[in-house]
Design a protein that fits this description.
The chain is an all-alpha fold and 661 residues long. 69% of the residues lie in helices and 1% in strands. The chain has a two-stranded antiparallel ribbon. The chain starts with a helix and ends with a helix.
Length: 661
């Protein structure tokens, strides 16, 4: 036997021996890594995709392939080859699903790089949504304890979808609100009702069998639905899935939730045409025998869709609502808070090294920023049939929550290197200053003064060293803070407009001080005109040439409608005050009651029925229909139909233009 052959045999024996020893040690190494929190998940086999079996089979070669693809992907991105990099990064996620950075890289490439290269809002949204879905639905399933994935996903939701920097941000907000409205429905306004609403989903049965056990009529209801749907369309198979929730949401909107559907007569039109699907839902929903079954079935289906399709735990959703406030899941900032908070609660314990401290701070800062955005835009007004965009208005109930978070974060990072807890001091100073302005515009003068006193006790005369920065009258402080604020933070303009109008309604109308209302309306008009007519504050984009800053503020008529509707449905405002404002508003704004009556009356009726006042004064006397309502409804139906037709024509034109290019 030659010398070379002997060397080859010896090397083969060494390789075999090494593999045998390594294989024997592997199990112990995995156990130790899991017990000491050195893996991305508590269980090495948890959520492992089938494709990884191939990667496991090729052993160490997988690492070489992944390294090569990773280097190649980074080089391609540097050259701007965003589409070409998709295949390589997708392969990396399959070969190495526990490699969290590639999920961030892959999702960011779709949501940011590729999306901005498209030409229509629809195309752009598909890529943004694909990047979000990738990290949320896949990356975080394979890496449920990775803090960076949580932080990045939270940032995308807040910045890309909830923010104003993208040309197509209004379209994103509309599609996001539509998706989550279909999934969860219209949330109650009152906090206790909101908590009970999401808690019902969290406590829903996990399985269909458990749902039947809780409400035996569920089995019969599902059978009736299956038979009815099959009788309508043999090609459509009924399943308890997202499609079922969309159909139910559509039915619910037409029957009782959508103002536009009611005004355009959708229900009568479907009845006239004999829509069998609509009739099926009507028949089964109106049958008192199935009342409990419907609640159980919808809650169970929503829970399964949240867990299976969105990788979201309804128990955490309910917990955060109970602890934080009236979270509306149609708002992308709510999801931003959810994922950053989930990262802090479930993933932070695996990022305990000192080098990870910056990551932990940034993730907690994302929580604070999400709550700040919710305080400014937390209330959503959405009609599924509206061709416009969802209405947003401030939600002051988050102000106290933010202050609680500040105290927790400041103590948590007090000893951190660098800025540490000081970064949260800057944040809370800016936020409370803005909150004082907003509350002042709302007419919540006492509460605004309390926040100013809080700032003074913490960072003014009670700070170190003591200073007189906050030792001023409330109106002086508000005027000083407002000056120049809109150039630095334009997103504060909508809150100021809504707040000024609310103050005008409550004081100017409710207390019969018309000069106060005129002053508030003049301020709202000034802010609106400033943003919508000052060209140097805008710049055109390829998304139909829309100015970005101009988009953040509705027309004054629309803002007045949102502010008045919010006031009439605000559980914090006493009914006596609302009744007074309702009876006197026509003197200053004759059209306002006509524009909001149909949108508010159902929800107001439910709330009013729980008030002792309803025993003495019927709803129709407390909040009577405004004169000329029927004629207004007819005119609105004509205008809405024309607007809808115009929107459809624009969409067709945009698509034809895109195809032509």
């Amino acid at each position: 036997m030659g010398r070379d052959r002997i060397i080859q045999l010896v090397m083969c024996l060494v390789v075999i021996l090494g593999l045998s020893v390594g294989g024997g040690l592997l199990g112990n190494l995995i156990d130790k890594s899991e017990s000491n929190g050195l893996r991305y998940t508590d269980n090495a086999d948890e959520n492992m995709p089938p494709f990884v079996a191939l990667g496991t089979a090729i052993g160490a070669v997988r690492g070489l392939i992944v390294d090569y693809l990773w280097i190649k992907a980074n080089m391609m991105v540097d050259r701007g080859q965003y589409y070409q990099v998709m295949e390589d990064t997708d392969l990396i996620t399959k070969l190495q699903p526990r490699f969290a950075p590639v999920w961030v890289f892959h999702g960011h490439n779709m949501a940011y790089n590729i999306s901005v290269a498209t030409n229509t809002p629809e195309e752009r949204w598909e890529w943004v949504k694909a990047g979000i879905d990738l990290v949320r639905n896949r990356g975080l399933r394979y890496n449920p304890n990775d803090l960076e994935l949580h932080k990045e996903l939270a940032f995308w939701l807040s910045h890309k979808v909830g923010g104003y920097t993208d040309d197509a941000h209004l379209y994103y907000k509309k599609e996001w609100a539509r998706e989550w409205h279909d999934l969860l429905g219209e949330p109650p306004v009152e906090l206790d009702a909101r908590i009970a609403w999401i808690r019902q989903i969290a406590d829903a049965p996990d399985t269909y069998e458990a749902a039947v056990q809780r409400s035996p009529e569920v089995a019969e209801l599902v059978e009736r639905l299956q038979d009815g749907v099959q009788g309508i369309d043999d090609t459509f198979e009924f399943e308890l899935d997202q499609r079922f929730l969309e159909l139910h949401s559509l039915w619910d909107a037409i029957n009782q939730q959508s103002y536009i559907a009611e005004k355009l007569g959708f229900q009568e039109e479907l009845d006239r045409k004999g829509s069998r699907m609509f009739s099926l839902f009507n028949e089964l929903s109106n049958d008192p025998y199935f009342a409990d079954a419907w609640e159980t079935l919808l809650a169970h289906t929503r829970k399964r869709v949240l867990l299976d399709e969105y990788n979201m735990d309804p128990e955490l959703m309910a917990q955060y609502t109970e602890e934080v406030g009236p979270l509306d899941w149609r708002n992308p900032h709510t999801h931003s808070y959810f994922w950053s908070r989930r990262g802090s609660d479930l993933a932070e314990f695996r990022s305990i090294a000192e080098k990870d401290e910056t990551l932990r701070i940034n993730n907690d800062r994302q929580q604070a920023h999400a709550l700040q955005a919710l305080a400014r835009t937390g209330r959503i007004y959405f009609d599924p049939f509206s061709p416009g965009f969802p209405g947003q208005s401030p939600e002051p109930r988050f102000i106290d929550t933010i202050d609680d978070h500040f105290e927790r974060f400041y103590v948590k990072y007090f000893d951190a290197k660098g800025a540490g807890g000081e970064t949260f001091i800057v944040f809370i100073k800016n936020f409370l200053s803005g909150a004082i302005r907003e509350l002042y515009r709302f007419g919540e003068v006492e509460r605004a003064q309390n926040l100013l006193d809080l700032l003074d006790s913490r960072f003014g005369r009670g700070g170190f060293p003591p200073n007189n920065q906050y030792a001023v009258d409330l109106d002086v402080f508000v005027a000083k803070e407002t000056q120049g604020e809109y150039e630095r933070q334009p997103h504060m303009a909508p809150a100021d407009v809504i707040g000024a109008l609310r103050y005008g309604y409550r004081v100017g109308v409710g207390e019969n001080r018309p000069e106060v209302y005129k002053e508030s309306a003049a301020f709202a008009k000034w802010v609106t005109d400033y943003f919508r007519n000052t060209e140097n504050q805008n710049f055109t984009t390829k998304m139909n040439g829309v100015g970005r800053l101009r988009d953040i503020l509705a027309t004054l008529d629309k803002s007045a409608q949102i502010a008045f509707l919010q006031l009439m449905l605000d559980p914090i405002v006493p009914f006596e005050e609302r009744m007074t404002i309702w009876s006197q508003i026509d003197d200053l704004e004759p059209q306002l009651r006509l524009r909001v009556y149909d949108q508010m009356i159902r929800q107001l009726s439910t709330e009013y029925s729980r008030s002792p006042l309803s025993q003495a004064i019927p709803l129709e006397e407390a909040f009577p229909e405004p004169p000329g309502l029927e004629a207004f409804r007819v005119q609105m139906a004509i205008e809405l139909a024309a607007e809808r037709e115009a929107m459809e024509s624009m969409e067709v034109g945009a698509k034809q233009k895109s195809l032509g290019e």
